[in-house]
Request: fold
Amino acid sequence: MQPGGYPLHDPGEVINTMKAIALAHGLGSTAKANNAVILRKDPATGKTKEIDVKLKKIMDRKAPDVQLYANDILFVPDSTTKRILGHAATAALSITTGLAIIKGSQ
Reply:
């Protein structure tokens, strides 16, 4: 996933959560898709409200997609646990591979 701003070039262009994810090149492997939120500022009060978005359900076609509006922010949190487990698995694989190479050359 490539976080960033993706401005709409055509004022009449409609963008939804799936298109936003596509523009960001998909979700990362550690993304918490069912904990995503849209941050939307209420023009009347100026306060930002959070709208829960179950991206996993939307991607599985079990929930309708959600339209985004000007200045909306689609925030998909990262799972620290998934990231740590991923690094640990990579390290374990590297160590195992290194041992296999050392053992094979003796």
Remarks:
- Residues 92-106 have pLDDT under 50 and may be disordered.
- The two ends are 43 Å apart (CA to CA).
- Strands lie at 15-16, 36-41, 48-53, 67-68, 73-75.
